[in-house]
From TrEMBL, chain A:
Pfam families: FYVE, Rbsn
Organism encoding this protein: Nadsonia fulvescens var. elongata DSM 6958
Residue intervals of the FYVE-type domain: 124-180, 258-334
Official protein name in the record: FYVE-type domain-containing protein
Transmembrane segments: none
Keyword field contains Zinc: yes
Record keywords, A-Z: DNA damage, DNA repair, Metal-binding, Zinc, Zinc-finger
Automatic annotation (TrEMBL), chain B:
Organismal lineage: Eukaryota, Fungi, Dikarya, Ascomycota, Saccharomycotina
One record GO biological process: vesicle-mediated transport
Pfam families in alphabetical order: Sec1 (PF00995)
SUPFAM superfamilies referenced in this protein's UniProt entry, alphabetically: Sec1/munc18-like (SM) proteins (SSF56815)
Family per record: Belongs to the STXBP/unc-18/SEC1 family.
Name by which UniProt lists this protein: Sec1-like protein
Length: 551, 613
């Protein structure tokens, strides 16, 4: 790879990419001037890379990756580095050499070349030379290397961008990429909300009109019946009183003639001896009374009254007085009410707990930056002079955070312990809990740093500090909620366990290696890591309990 | 142009992680952030969303429930608000209408992936008795975003051919048109449309897209570019070679040898594979940095890179186990989630690459590939024929490989005086019946009538068709060049001529929409076919390969100021390609003469095989 020469002019090159570019630039017009040489040279290159290919495919993979488990650390020497081809660089195969028509564009603003001039691209800073190129961006006028002026834009005589009247000019990357709209990734969005409302409104108005009309009738019916009841509730109404009720019912709306209908308008079943005709007391239409299809239903009037927020009868006879209402009337009058009612009903326990979590989360999120600030101050001062004030502050904030986190944790756990019967709600519960655990893990971890920090600072003076250790223990107890693990958590813990065990295996390998190489000074820290790992593994196993093993 | 960023932007809008336009910032966002949302999707949008976002991202936006709109077992939770994201198909609209008649949730925001018919919108409005809908928007994420520069239509049925191989099925044409217009709107491009002159399929699609753009000019009224973007519609039949060649780059190899479906790879076929690796996510768009860096590496470089990756992991592990100082601790804490992800990722890629390596060895793919490349790039009939005959006899070479080789031979030497395809087909015919249930002989006959020399109209390309080896011998001089990747895809040459402003008008005419002024009248408005485009959208009718996606990514990375996105009806591998040819030969769409002798292939076995695959 180190010896590359151009097959046509024999100029030596450093990389294939460079050669490629050179060929495009210098020889793009020449076609097979030296056909035979080129061909043989090419086949040599191919043969060379083929050998490499074979080697890499067969040897690398059987040696290093033949075994599935690569994490054993046994193959850490760089045996295959010689096989790497370097980065697979993209070619500029398709790149057009710009045809530029920029004579008319002003050059007054061009930067003059001074000695030791470097490319104006911030991250480039290549010295400008014949080799690297030395080109003025036609727009901003600054000097750049070749690579950073490979862009084209249409400019006017005054070197301003103008897609309509400009001519093609060579410009720098910054000018190209800062043209308006370049970084606009907001695709087209069409808002139809207004149109939708407009379409919906007449329908809603109509609906409301209907609902009002039906509701009025229903109110009237209920109040008539209520006053009839209040005359004398009785226990079981005799036939003549039922006739009276029938008369009241019929006053509300004109009933449809039985003869007009042969099929129930709701369920489309044919009326016959078993499927009898009934009249809806609100609209007067004939419907069936089949309880399965729920086409119409006898509803007790005090229930209806409660739904409509009006006064019903004070007392009810033992056999309650009810009235028949069809499905369509029920929907028109009640479903909108029900909907609004459900929306504003008190939150169920799950959502109540969620709201508490949200509140605590906001508290934690707003306190955390303050804590990290004080932590940084402490860390800067570590070892030399412990800033008493900062320590006190940090401890105080940390305590507050710990308390809030503990609260958060206990609420999220009690949320996950709620017994829910509906599958959808259980899924909701699981997902909220999952997100809560994740949130806690991320936010609790920085809190761990402080006791360690204080411990190591105090060690210098007074030895180990009990209270901070205690806190650390407390902390450990609720970092990972232990009760009733969800499947996702189990999977999560198992993954952690795998990682930890892989690390343990790795570290044991390193201990062995160090022993063999007689590097005894490396062993103690490794062994202490091993102990820590063991502890961690035990802890995870403990959390997992019987779930540690896959079923 | 970046398909991923545009799509993610739409998703952010839907999930509410974008602050509402201009409304006083943080406070409202903070409250919305906590409001639990239910996300209702349909079959199509489920794929769209899963290609570009993760569950944890959705969770972090308080989307705690995701469900399909057609699922009728959902229960009433009217304290929650709902976000509906669906394609405006009749089925999804019907489901939405029913949902709104009896709303399960307290409020609804509706997002459609494409333009919704006025009549459909009216139906929805009329079903919203409860005034539960608070927002209705059309967003144009109506494409499967595979890579930032690669998209797929996501057809329900793979076949796109109607009654003839040069006609569309109504569904495929409609879906492709909708996807393409959505891509144009998502990327804000109003293109000049060019198409393969010899392809009725391309022309038809060009016509549909152009019609939609003309229907709604105000929608496509974008900031004027220096030069109009080009939408180039190509037909697979003009390059039947690329899908038949074994690719040697990571993403392409995985698709060829194991298959990628909606970013997922099924590894359960590997013996003793760990349970968590039975199905893996291999995404060019979500969070897998290693894959994003290595997806275009060739197999040799990939080996070295994955070795480095393992080393890097080991160094990291070493550092992390050795927590001594507070700095270590802090680093560990900060790295921890990243670190755990890394651990999972390392084993995933190692498993994947080991399996690829095993398949290469076991199926003799190096020898196969070498012969394929020779067929594609050289003119050595007798030698190639001899080699094929040897390979056809060899027991460890898979049936798929044999079919590919004979197919390549058929395409390559169709005009050769000693053309001996019948003899090879006869040899192929004596092979073991194919486990995946397609008939290789029929498929090859079908291929020749679909994309044979006459259909390809090779005159267009002269001697520089897809068979010519890396033209001047220089083109192939990349760092990764070798005998297995000599062949340059036709797409690479086509794009090169387009970007140089040298594309022939006769071969790739500009679709005449009757609206655009002619060159002579206003030169600035670019019917100037010699002007070099800066933004190009390529769409290949009938399938695109990951090899072609790599070519496009390479041009994007190496050519300053050029942005290309590539799309197709489907991302195919050689199996998809051949299987489809076999299927259309069964439907009698292509006038080959299917051999009556071979009757082992029944519909049942093919369905079973589909499932196996
Ligand atoms: Zn030279
Ligand atoms: Zn500039
Ligand atoms: Zn530079
Ligand atoms: Zn009925
Ligand atoms: Zn009624």
């Amino acid at each position: 790879m180190s010896e590359i020469t151009c097959p046509i002019c024999n100029e030596s090159m450093v990389t294939l990419l460079q050669l490629n570019r050179h060929l495009d630039d210098a020889h793009s017009e020449i076609k097979f001037v030296n056909n035979e040489d080129t061909a043989s040279w090419f086949s040599k290159q191919v043969a060379k890379s083929r050998a490499k290919q074979l080697q890499s495919v067969t040897s690398v993979f059987t040696q290093a990756f033949g075994k599935l488990d690569l994490l054993d650390g046994s193959d850490t020497d760089g045996s295959s580095t010689s096989l790497s081809h370097g980065p697979a660089s993209a070619t500029k195969r398709g790149s057009p050499v710009p045809i530029l028509t920029d004579e008319n564009v002003t050059r007054k603003h061009w930067q003059k070349l001074s000695p030791n001039q470097r490319c104006a691209e911030v991250l480039c800073e290549k010295p400008l030379s014949a080799r690297n190129g030395c080109i003025n961006c036609r727009k901003c006028g600054k000097l750049f290397c070749h690579k950073h002026t490979m862009y084209r834009m249409k400019l006017t005589k005054n070197a301003m961008h103008d897609p309509t009247n400009g001519t093609w000019c060579r410009v720098c990357e910054t000018c190209y990429k800062s043209r308006p709209g370049y970084n606009d990734h907001k695709g087209v969005v069409i808002d139809l909300t207004q149109d939708f409302r407009r379409m919906r409104q007449p329908h809603i108005d109509q609906q409301e009109l209907n609902a009002n009309r039906l509701e009025k009738r229903l109110v009237k019916l209920i109040s008539s019946l209520s006053s009839e009841i209040s005359k004398d509730p009785g226990s079981v109404w005799p036939l003549n009183r039922l006739r009276q009720k029938y008369a009241i019912d019929k006053e509300i709306v004109k009933w449809q003639a039985d003869g007009e209908v042969t099929d129930c308008p709701e369920c489309h079943n044919h009326f016959n001896f078993t499927l009898r005709k009934h009249h809806c007391r609100v609209c007067g239409k004939v419907v069936c009374g089949n309880l399965n299809s729920d086409c119409s239903r006898d509803v007790e009037i005090n229930i209806l009254a409660a739904k409509l927020d009006i006064k019903g009868p004070d007392v009810m006879p033992v056999t309650p007085i009810s009235t028949r209402i069809c499905k369509s009337c029920k929907n028109t009058v009640l479903s909108r009410r029900n909907f609004l009612h459900d929306k504003t009903a008190p939150l169920p326990p799950l959502l109540k707990k969620y709201e508490q979590l949200c509140h605590l989360r906001m508290v934690i999120e707003s306190t955390m930056p303050k804590f990290q600030e004080t932590l940084e101050i402490l860390q800067d001062a570590q070892g030399q002079h412990t800033d008493q004030q900062a320590t006190a502050d940090a401890t105080k904030i940390r305590k507050k955070l710990l308390n809030t986190c503990a609260q958060f944790d206990s609420i999220s756990r009690s949320l996950s312990n709620l017994t829910l019967n509906i599958e959808n709600e259980r899924r909701l519960q699981q997902n909220i809990f999952l997100a809560a655990v994740h949130f806690l893990q991320i936010n609790m971890l920085p809190l761990r740093a402080l006791p360690k920090l204080l411990k190591s600072a105090k060690k210098l003076k007074t030895g180990p500090n009990k209270s901070s250790q205690q806190e650390a223990v407390e902390f450990k107890n609720f970092v990972l909620p232990t009760s009733r693990l969800t499947d996702t958590e189990i999977a999560d813990l198992r993954q952690q366990l795998i990682v930890m065990e892989e690390q343990k295996f790795l570290v044991s390998g390193m201990v062995e290696g160090a022993t063999q190489r007689r590097k005894y000074n490396e062993i103690p820290p490794l062994e202490s890591s091993l102990r820590e790992l063991d502890k961690e593994i035990d802890r995870i196993r403990c959390d997992l309990g019987t779930d540690a093993f896959e079923n | 142009m970046n398909l991923l960023q545009s799509a993610s932007n739409y998703i952010d809008r839907i999930t509410g992680s974008l602050p509402a336009n201009g409304v006083h910032g943080t406070s409202t966002v903070g409250i919305n952030k906590n409001k639990i949302k239910v996300l209702l999707l349909d079959k199509d949008t489920t794929s769209i969303v899963s290609m570009i976002t993760t569950q944890s991202h959705l969770l972090s936006n308080a989307i705690y429930l995701i469900d399909t709109i057609t699922n009728t077992t959902r229960t009433k939770m009217r304290h929650l608000s709902c976000v509906v994201f669906i394609r405006p198909t009749p089925d999804s609209i019907q489901a939405l209408v029913e949902e709104l008649r009896n709303p399960l949730y307290g409020s609804y925001e509706l997002y459609f992936t494409n333009i919704i018919k006025k009549s459909s919108l009216e139906r929805i409005a009329e079903s919203d008795d409860h005034e539960a809908v608070t927002k209705v928007q059309e967003v144009f994420a109506d494409y499967l975003c595979v890579n930032p520069d690669l998209f797929e239509v996501g057809l329900a049925k793979p076949n796109i051919f109607g009654s003839m191989p040069d006609s569309w099925t109504a569904e495929a044409l409609n879906r492709s048109t909708e996807t393409l217009t959505a891509v144009l709107l998502a990327l804000k491009q109003k293109p000049l449309i060019r198409y393969d002159a010899n392809s009725l399929l391309s022309k038809k699609l060009a016509n549909e897209v152009s019609y939609r753009v003309r229907q709604d000019p105000s929608l496509y009224d974008f900031r004027r570019p220096d030069t109009p973007p080009v939408l180039l519609i190509l037909d697979r039949k003009n390059d039947p070679i690329t899908p038949l060649l074994l690719p040697w780059t990571y993403q392409a190899m995985v698709h060829e040898l194991l298959g990628i479906t909606n970013n997922r790879v099924n590894l359960s076929v590997i013996p003793d594979v760990r349970p968590e690796l039975q199905e893996i996510v291999l995404s060019g768009t979500q969070g897998d940095n290693f894959f994003q860096k290595s997806m275009y590496l060739n197999f040799g470089d990939l080996g070295a890179t994955i070795k480095e990756y393992v080393d890097q992991y080991q160094t990291k592990t070493k550092n992390n186990t050795n927590i001594e100082s507070i700095d270590d601790m802090k680093r560990f804490v900060e790295d921890y989630p990243e670190f755990r992800k890394l651990a999972g990722n390392v084993s995933k890629h190692v498993t994947l690459v080991s399996e690829l390596s095993r398949l290469v060895e076991a199926e003799g793919l190096l020898a196969v590939s070498e012969l394929e490349q020779s067929l594609a790039c050289n003119d050595s009939h007798n030698q190639d024929l001899k080699q094929i005959q040897i390979i056809l006899q060899s027991p460890n070479i898979s049936f798929d490989s044999k079919v590919r080789l004979v197919a390549l031979y058929g395409l390559r030497y169709e005009k050769n005086a000693n053309f001996s395809l019948p003899a090879l087909l006869d040899l192929l015919d004596h092979q073991q019946p194919h486990p995946y249930g397609y008939n290789g002989v029929n498929a090859i006959k079908s291929l020749l009538s679909y994309a044979g020399a006459q259909k390809r109209d090779e005159g267009i390309f002269g001697g520089e068709g897809f068979f010519s080896r890396a033209q001047s011998g220089f083109k192939g001089l990349k760092g990764v060049e070798n005998v297995y990747t000599q062949h340059t895809t036709l797409l690479s040459k086509t794009l090169s001529s387009l970007l140089r402003g040298k594309m022939k008008d006769a071969s790739y005419p500009i679709f005449d929409d009757g609206v655009r002024p002619k060159l002579v009248e206003t030169p600035a408005y670019g019917v100037d076919t010699n002007e070099r485009p800066q933004n190009v959208i390529v769409f290949i009718v009938g399938g695109v390969t990951y090899e072609e996606a790599r070519v496009v990514a390479e041009i994007n990375a190496g050519t300053p100021g050029i942005s290309i996105v590539l799309g197709s009806t489907k991302i195919i591998n050689s199996y998809d390609f051949i299987k489809n040819l076999n299927d259309i030969s069964h439907k009698g769409l292509i006038k080959g003469q299917p051999l009556t002798r071979l009757t082992f292939h029944t519909n049942n076995s093919s369905r079973a095989a589909e499932e196996i695959k």
